[in-house]
Amino acid sequence: MFYRPEDGHGLPHNPFNAIVTPRPIGWISTRGADGCDNLAPYSFFNACAYVPPQVMFSSTSSKEDRGDTKDSVGNIRETGFFCVNIVEYAARDVMNKTSTMVSAGVDEFELAGISKEECQTIPCSRVANAPAALECKVTQIIKLEGESNFAVFGEVIGIHMRDDCIVDGRFDVTRFHPLSRLGYRDYSVIKEVFSLTRPDDN
């Protein structure tokens, strides 16, 4: 099968998200200029550079009380900071609850009953028991093609790792089983890993 996206795929559901999988989930926490905290999951998320460490996520829809975007990007425009909380399998249900479209000013930490702690380097809350959290200052927000598509890039200036996830000096993902996003309404969980050595590694 071949199709041009501009012509449509002719299938019952859009296959694009199912093709580009698995995708890590960035559970993005922000704080608005009004001091209200926000927490929302984004599956268009990834690390994008080592030195300095940088991450990005994309927001692809909008809500009436935020104009051309949603609360996360709106808050980041106001303050210039955000935190990426890593999602473990055990948090799948509360993570999903924070994807609910609610009015600006609603604190999803409180909505989903999630404990939060203050970040160390930025004025923002983080998920208290997340396996890891990346405190970020915004470097740029890029308007992408499409009505409400924005890519947010940030430099990681503070990193939290849960102590039980550090094994023999390595951050061990099998200790918490990262959740990943597939297509449609599907998710997956990482429970096993394997290693490959590059041919030019000594």
Automatic annotation (TrEMBL):
Pfam families: Flavin_Reduct
SMART domains in alphabetical order: Flavin_Reduct
InterPro entries with a match to the protein in the record: Flavin_Rdtase-like_dom, Split_barrel_FMN-bd
GO molecular function, one term: FMN binding
Domain Flavin reductase like intervals: 18-173
Domain of life from the UniProt record: Bacteria
Protein name: Flavin reductase (DIM6/NTAB) family NADH-FMN oxidoreductase RutF
Lineage, top ranks: Bacteria, Pseudomonadati, Pseudomonadota, Alphaproteobacteria, Rhodobacterales
